[in-house]
Design brief:
GO molecular function: oxidoreductase activity
Number of helices: 13
Protein name: (Fe-S)-binding protein
InterPro entries: Cys_rich_dom
Organism: Spirosoma validum
Strand content: 5-15%
Shape: globular
CATH topology of the largest domain: Rossmann fold
CATH architecture of the largest domain: 3-Layer(aba) Sandwich
Largest sheet: 4 strands, parallel
CATH class of the largest domain: Alpha Beta
Number of domains: 2
Amino acid sequence: MTVGLFIPCYVNQFYPQAAIATLQLLQKLDVDVAYPPKQTCCGQPMANSGFEHLTKECNDLFVTNFARFDYIVAPSASCVLHVKEHLHSADDPAQAESIRSKTYELVEFLTDVLNVEDLKARFPHKVGIHQSCHGLRGLHLAQMSELNAPPFSKPVRLLNMVDGLELVSLDRPDDCCGFGGTFCIAEEAVSVKMGKDRVLDHQRNGAEYITSVDLSCLMHLEGILQRNKTGIKALHIAQILNSTH
C-alpha cells in the first residue's frame, strides 16, 4: 500500500516533531509513505465557523494532493473527521467521496488497517489519556462512558504495547478539555475552566504526561500545564508509540 501523509497546518507550524514521529512510526511498520509538499489547511476552521462556502480551494487542493494514494493518514482526529464528513468537490465528486472513505486518523489506521500487535516501543512514564471529542464521539476510537456498552479503546490497546508505560485512571475520562476551536475564543472563561478541570484530574491521579490523538486539545492543555507550573508534559500519542527510551 502507499500512504499519503496528511499533516494539518497547526501540526506543521507548532508541533512538527509529532509529524516526524508519525512518519517514522509508519516507516518502522514497513508502510510506503509519501508527503505531498503542496498540502495546506483542510478547511476545517472555516467550515466550523459557518463559512464552508469559502473552503472550495482547500477541498480542490486536498483532492489534487491525495487522490493517488491507497490511504491517507493524519495525526489529528479533528482534521480527519472534517475530511471524512465534509470533503466535497464540484469538479470530481466521485474522487472526493473515495478520499473520504480512505482517510484515517493514525491510531485508527494502526488498529483497523494494519492490525498492529507489536510496536517495540519504550516509554517508562505514567501517562493519562485525554479523549478528544472528535476522536471519541466522531471517529469512535473508544467507547463513550455514558453508554451501557462493552468498553474498548484503540489508543489504550496501542499504549499497552509500550514497554514501561503505566496508564493512569482518571476520575472523568471522557470530559472535554474546553478547546473546541473558536469556542476557546468566543467562550474564553468556560474554555479555561474546562481545561483546568482536565489538568486537575491528571494531576490528582499522578500523570507525568498527558497524551491524545488531537494536538489541538493538547495545545490548549499545554498552555494551562505550563502556566500553572505543574511539571506535567503534553505529548502526542505518535511520539510515545515511536519512542524507544
